[in-house]
């Protein structure tokens, strides 16, 4: 049987998705990227193949994407994560939409047309504000983990205003808020609001089109979709399996391109 | 570069240790970016040689001219009229400002969040790193933007500086102002060189620079052919060297190169496959050795076929009318050229949008990378006009801003890659 694979080598996590000839996802795997993107990519792909009940020889085409896409020696082609995320989300949504992808070190706002074409996109600059890394650092400052950070934000009645979105400055702001006795939940909520303003602002600049969807590993955080929805004044849906979306899009491009 | 130049550099007062590091850095980046390109025209050999002698032979030439009484003028903007400088027996040298190597020196006096080009040239002087800078008798600045205007005030404390006032509007009053500014500059330049500006000398030098601009026009127009006979990186290098090389020798070398490129076009020989996705840039200048954007784009397999930039079309597309029969008329013609070059320092600046659309159509590019140096307020704010106009024309555009650091190389690859994928 013929299979197609997409591998998304992100700054934090490497994801692989295997699809069959009909584009159905039949295998998926992920692991921390670590120091060797190439080795991790091979391991993750083999695990995804195992779930699909397939072997390397069954693969007709492999597309690599993500920050480390050039590190995957066995890829047949390389496509940017912007195109892959749009492709993966389009397969789930169908019509025109706005996609916000929040990864470990990059944030993108992408406007996708009714035919699935990327019309416009924006990407954060050399700055971790509004990325997964930002929330990781803040969770550490609050002496908790990412899952608990989201829970704290959801439970809080209100949020404090965090004035800096620079990861370094925001961290010291969090520390001084804690020292002043501000409840952790209010800080957590304020941090999510800050990220929502940052990435929501990018989405507004790119031009909101259709429904707003969230993808990338950070979309697994339920507090963020809520904060973004509040900021944008409209519902924000999370793509199914948001962390795998880029790899899924890459696998679909492997299928359509080969 | 030969060690024989060390006494010359020491004589200019350079910080030799820093200067060694700069040259080592250049020797490290130039081969992979330039020499490893496939199928380069042989005519690029001259320009490779110029780079291999970047702080050697040309600096020695300048010093030899100075020993014979000539004066060297350093400039940072194509609005400073080269033809007046050379007509007075001076030498005009566009000073380099394209590396973050000198940033730390600049930031002693200047804020961090400032245009990298300004920090680069300022740091070169402050750190005593650039032999060209030290070889100049006068730096001629201009009030194109606030950052430069204020930086020249500080620069004036370290080096002789003359600032020409560049108007930002186009009307009868500013035309008069600009013409008066040229007259005042002529007085200062005559005093420095000890020569008088004559009609014959100015006419000869208007022609000299027009011939050079026309050679560059022809070379750059050959890039529009598919397949393109010369890489965007190589053409960029030629456009950069135009600012400081001897104009006669430079023009002869460009003509040789363009004849070779013409033969390539006839035979259908190119440096990228036919039908490769071609891109053009619009925006701020690319001072030597800022090759980052072109390197990112062409590493992706997409030739850069035009630049709407000061190092690009703005430099060579407008020539000076040679027909006036007297000095005043010829100076009017020199002054007029300024208003026909559309820098974002002007308001309003709708003509620039026409230039970009025109170059897009002529060059056969599939999309425009609208590139701005970080913190360059005029071009960054004008970017919205560029985007709106290109959108109206149905021309794909990607706006980017970046400095001289290599930290965003991967991000630029992703952005430009996604842009090409969307075409």
The secondary-structure class of chain A comes to: alpha/beta
**Major sheet of chain A:** 5 strands, mixed
User: Helix-strand pattern of chain B, N to C?
Assistant: HHHHEHEHHHEHEHHHHEHEHHHEHEH
CATH architect. name of the domain at 3-83 and 244-257 in chain A: 2-Layer Sandwich
Question: Topology as H/E string of chain A?
Answer: EEEHEEHEEEHHHHEHEH
Would you mind describing this structure in some detail?
The complex is a heterodimer of chains A (258) and B (423). With 258 residues, chain A is α/β, with parallel strands linked by helices. Chain A has a domain at 3-83 and 244-257: ATPase, nucleotide binding domain (Nucleotidyltransferase, domain 5, 2-Layer Sandwich). Helix content of chain A is 42%, strand content 22%. Chain A is built from 8 helices and 10 strands. In chain A, α6 (184-206) packs across α7 (222-232). Chain B has 423 residues and is an alpha/beta fold. Chain B has a domain at 3-200: Rossmann fold, CATH 3.40.50.11890. In chain B, strands 2-1-3-4 form a 4-stranded parallel beta sheet, with helices on both faces. In chain B, α11 runs parallel beside α16 (327-339) and α14 (292-299) packs across α19 (409-421). Chain B starts with 5 loop residues before the first helix and ends with a helix. Chain A binds chain B through residues 67, 79-83, 106, 117-119, 121, 123, 125-126, and chain B through 407-408, 410-411, 414-415, 417-418, 421-422.
Features:
heterodimer; A: 258 residues; alpha/beta; Nucleotidyltransferase, domain 5; five-stranded mixed sheet; 42% helix; B: alpha/beta; Rossmann fold; four-stranded parallel sheet; 19 helices; 8 strands; 54% helix
């Amino acid at each position: 049987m013929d299979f197609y694979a997409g591998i998304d080598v992100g700054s934090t996590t490497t994801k692989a998705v295997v699809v069959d000839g009909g584009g159905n996802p039949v295998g998926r795997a992920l692991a921390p990227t670590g120091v060797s993107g190439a080795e991790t990519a091979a391991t993750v792909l083999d695990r995804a193949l195992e779930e699909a009940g397939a072997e390397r020889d069954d693969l007709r085409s492999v597309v690599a994407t993500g920050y480390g896409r050039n590190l995957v020696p066995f890829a047949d082609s390389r496509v940017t994560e912007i195109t892959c995320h749009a492709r993966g989300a389009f397969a789930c949504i169908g019509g025109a939409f706005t996609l916000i992808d929040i990864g470990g070190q990059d944030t993108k706002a992408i406007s996708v047309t009714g035919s699935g074409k990327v019309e416009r996109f924006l990407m954060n600059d050399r700055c971790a504000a509004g990325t997964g890394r930002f929330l990781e650092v803040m969770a550490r400052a609050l002496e908790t983990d990412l899952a608990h950070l989201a829970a704290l934000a959801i439970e809080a009645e209100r949020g404090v205003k965090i004035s800096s979105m620079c990861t370094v400055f925001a961290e010291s702001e969090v520390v001084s808020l804690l020292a002043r006795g501000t409840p952790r939940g209010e800080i957590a909520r304020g941090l999510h609001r800050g990220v929502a303003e940052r990435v929501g602002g990018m989405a507004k600049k790119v031009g909101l089109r259709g429904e707003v969807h969230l993808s990338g590993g950070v979309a697994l955080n339920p507090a963020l979709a809520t904060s973004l929805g509040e900021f944008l004044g409209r519902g924000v849906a999370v793509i199914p399996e948001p962390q795998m979306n880029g790899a899924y899009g890459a696998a679909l491009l492997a299928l359509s391109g080969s | 570069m030969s060690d024989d130049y060390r006494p010359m550099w020491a004589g200019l007062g350079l910080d030799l240790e820093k200067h060694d590091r700069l040259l080592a850095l250049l020797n490290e980046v130039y081969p992979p970016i330039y020499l490893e390109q496939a199928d380069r025209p042989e005519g690029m050999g001259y320009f490779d040689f110029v780079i291999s002698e970047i702080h050697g032979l040309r600096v020695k030439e300048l010093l030899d001219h100075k020993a014979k009484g000539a004066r060297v003028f350093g400039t940072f903007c194509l609005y400073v009229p080269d033809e007046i400088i050379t007509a007075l027996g001076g030498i005009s040298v566009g000073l380099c400002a394209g590396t973050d190597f000198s940033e730390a020196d600049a930031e002693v006096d200047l804020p961090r969040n400032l245009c990298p080009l300004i920090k680069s040239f300022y740091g070169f002087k402050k750190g005593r790193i650039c032999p060209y800078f030290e070889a100049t008798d006068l730096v001629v600045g201009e009030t194109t933007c606030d950052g430069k205007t204020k930086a020249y005030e500080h620069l004036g404390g370290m080096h002789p500086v003359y600032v020409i006032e560049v108007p930002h509007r186009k009307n009868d009053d500013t035309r008069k102002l600009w013409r008066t500014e040229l007259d005042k500059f002529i007085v200062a330049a005559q005093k420095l060189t000890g020569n008088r500006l004559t009609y014959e000398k100015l006419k000869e030098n208007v022609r000299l620079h027009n011939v050079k601009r026309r050679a560059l026009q022809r070379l750059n127009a050959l890039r529009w052919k598919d397949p393109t006979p010369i890489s965007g990186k190589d053409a960029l290098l030629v456009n950069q060297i135009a600012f400081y090389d001897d104009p006669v020798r430079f023009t002869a070398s460009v003509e040789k190169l363009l004849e070779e490129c013409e033969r390539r076009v006839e035979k259908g020989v190119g440096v990228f496959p036919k039908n490769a996705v071609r891109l053009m840039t619009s925006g701020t200048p690319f001072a030597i050795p800022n090759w980052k954007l072109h390197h990112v784009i062409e590493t992706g397999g997409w030739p850069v076929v035009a630049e709407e930039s000061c190092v690009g079309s703005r430099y060579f597309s407008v020539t000076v009318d040679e027909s006036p029969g007297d000095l005043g008329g010829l100076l009017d013609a020199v002054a007029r050229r300024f208003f026909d070059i559309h820098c974002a320092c002007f308001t309003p600046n709708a003509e620039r949008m026409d230039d970009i659309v025109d170059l897009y159509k002529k060059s056969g590019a599939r999309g425009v990378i609208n590139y701005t140096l970080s913190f360059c307020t005029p071009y960054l704010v004008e970017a919205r006009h560029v985007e709106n106009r290109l959108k109206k024309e149905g021309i794909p555009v990607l706006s980017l801003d970046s400095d001289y650091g290599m930290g965003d190389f991967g991000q630029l690859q992703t952005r430009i890659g996604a842009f090409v994928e969307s075409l």
